[in-house]
Amino acid sequence: MTIKNFYKISILILMTFLFSGCLGNGPTYTTKAEEFPKMYDQKPRSILILPPMNESTDAEAKDYYMTTVEIPFASMGYYTFPVEMVSDIMKQEGVYDTELLYNMPLTKFYDYFGADTVLFTNISKWDVSYAVIASSLTVSIDARIVSTKTSEELWKYTGTVVVDLSGGDTGGGIAGLIAKVVVAAINTAASDYVKHAHTANRRLIYTLPFGPYHDHYLLDQDMKFLDQTPKAKS
After folding, report:
1. How far apart, in Å, do the first and last CA atoms of the chain sit?
2. pTM (predicted TM-score)
């Protein structure tokens, strides 16, 4: 074997290993039926949406997000209780704080509203990160649906969107870098947070099985999506 052929074979073997490694570490996918079988077993018809918990650095994130959540879940085929009505009834019962709502027995939500399930959401990120040459907005929403009858978690997923606020390459050395920081600040101030929250919602709601008021109810078990909790390989 010549040295030239040896190198060719060596490179081919190396590429094979690298390609195999890429495949092994790639994203995994699951189906709605595999990931959320209890949604199909219990067949909930209604969702009561609670105000989100806010762990982000933006104090107004909670108010922004509440304007985006009701319609998307209703469009998936579920009856969603009007957010303002739920808030008013809870206040009449002396419950003003979100943390108190999250700690209430789930049966109470069935008693008060007749809700089959409750949607709990957590805003884990609604943050702007600044850097010298780039800035970005990250919106990340953790959502889960829990049964009011069995207290079982029926569905859980995270929707995340990262938005570039840097405004592209300005060039021009130090002056360009300064201009880029100014552009990022302007874009951040004018950024449509609600639009980005809608995007995050779409990414998580896509995984939710359709409800009884949707044309594809019980016909979506085989729909695939990105598995956020890959199972360990045997």
Report:
1. 40
2. 0.77
